[in-house]
Write a structure and sequence with these properties.
Layout (H helix, E strand, L loop, with lengths): L1 E9 L2 H20 L3 E6 L4 H7 L7 H6 L3 E6 L7 H15 L4 E7 L9 H5 L5 E7 L3 E10 L7 E7 L2 H16 L5 E6 L7 H13 L7 E6 H10 L6 E4 L1 H14 L7 E5 L7 E5 L16 H15 L4 H15 L15 H14 L1
Parallel strand pairs: 1-2, 1-3, 3-12, 5-10, 8-9, 8-10
Antiparallel strand pairs: 4-5, 4-11, 6-7, 11-12
The structure holds 1,4-dihydronicotinamide adenine dinucleotide and magnesium ion.
Length: 361
């Protein structure tokens, strides 16, 4: 099988880790022999934007749609305001490509040192999948500004919640929970203070939940209390479903609790498979370490493993699991960890080590 991948390295360390991911994916294909990847690399970045005034061509939608999946590095660079770079690329792709689910698994990989003493003793306590609503809510892009930059400036940022949007993400979350050994789902909102959209969210969630009574165990949290529970009782959770903004924040916290933002993956899925889905580590372009060749590629590899799983439609689950095993064999050894994981290896050394492991497992 040939999988056509649209590769968008983007900015900063996005470039390094996308290159690393391609190398590892090609090794996986070579060793397996039943599939291969063909990449189209898109020069859509902040550097290109500065030079020519645009990120993506007008027909970007048609260009991406000729691919089976999108592999994304990171976008954003200090000389372009972040709201421009995000709204010129990553957010339109998620919305227009119908990627209404963002799946963010978190667990403590072998060799990582989580910051909490409790989790150092029982790393298996942290094993979550955060399911982020990816198409609407606080990132709907609605709002406006008046009185410009005057002392009377006014801005609105309108969150949009639709029954259709809430229902489909809730259903996806329950199905995910149902497929996991612990079968638990925690729903997060802020429906005490935000009395319209969040209340609708709660209502729709509990309607859908009825269909899963006795199958999935579920509960509800307010987002502020949720941050405390994640730190104090990580073992009490399994799957978590939340809005676009809340899940964005909670997943960075989750990554930090698991040991590093550099290991966390994400999948932007169109569950209907009418558009290509997009896979990317959750970290950004990391200007502070860009160009040094020291970025941790593990989040990129994990995202690539999830891409293989998605492309395989159930046929490549074992391959994705072996890929993860190879990654953990590498993070498990002190001399093949990057600095954020307490080691001193660079991106290339970790990449080569994972390629060697893929040949062995
Ligand atoms: P960031 O994730 O780029 O960096 C945060 C910190 O984590 C930095 O100290 C960085 O060195 C470290 N870090 C991140 N990834 C790492 C890796 N793979 N290995 C080792 N260390 C790593 O977040 P920040 O600094 O807030 O944002 C930088 C730029 O990236 C901004 O322009 C922001 O808008 C953009 N961004 C883009 C995202 C995307 O493309 N999806 C997501 C998050 C941020
Ligand atoms: Mg984020």
């Amino acid at each position: 099988t040939l999988f056509k991948i649209a590769a968008i390295p983007g900015d900063g360390i996005g470039v390094d880790i996308t290159e690393a991911a391609k190398q590892v994916l090609d090794k996986l294909a070579e060793v397996n022999g039943t599939f291969r990847f063909e990449y189209t690399t898109f020069d859509w970045s902040s550097k290109a934007y500065k030079a020519r005034g645009w990120y993506m061509q007008d027909d970007w939608e048609a260009q991406l749609k000729t691919h089976d999946a999108i592999y994304f590095g990171a976008v954003g660079w200090p000389d372009v305001p972040d709201h421009i770079s995000l709204w010129q690329m990553i957010l339109p792709i998620r919305q227009v490509m119908n990627q209404y689910v963002n799946v963010r698994p978190t667990r403590i990989l072998r060799g990582t040192t989580p910051p909490l003493a409790q989790l150092q003793k029982t790393p298996q306590d942290l094993d979550w999948i955060i399911i982020r609503e990816n198409s609407e809510g606080e990132y709907a892009g609605q709002g406006g500004t008046t009185h410009g930059h005057t002392a009377n400036a006014i801005a609105t940022e309108v969150a949009i919640f639709t029954r259709v949007g809430i229902e489909r993400i809730t259903r996806f979350a329950f199905e995910t929970a149902k497929s996991r050994p612990r079968k638990k789902l925690t729903m997060v909102t802020k429906s005490n203070a935000q009395r319209h959209g969040m209340v609708l969210w709660d209502k729709v969630f509990f309607e859908v939940a009825k269909e899963y009574d006795g199958v999935v165990e579920y509960d509800k949290m307010l987002v502020d209390a949720m941050t405390v529970r994640m730190v104090d009782h990580p073992e009490s959770m399994d799957c978590i479903v939340a809005t676009n903004l809340h899940a964005d924040i909670l997943s960075d916290l989750a990554a930090a609790l698991a040991g590093s933002i550099g290991i966390a993956p994400s999948s932007n899925l169109d569950p209907t498979r009418s558009c290509p889905s997009m896979f990317e580590p959750i970290h950004g372009s990391a200007p502070d370490i860009a160009g040094k060749g020291i970025a941790n590629p593990v989040g990129a590899f994990w995202s690539a493993a999830e891409m293989v799983r998605w492309l395989g439609k159930g046929e490549l689950d074992a391959v994705a699991d072996q890929f993860m095993e190879a990654i953990e064999n590498v993070t498990g050894k002190p001399d093949t960890r990057t600095r954020d994981m307490g080691g001193s290896a660079n991106t290339m050394q970790v990449t080569e080590a994972v390629c060697r492991e893929i040949e062995n497992v």
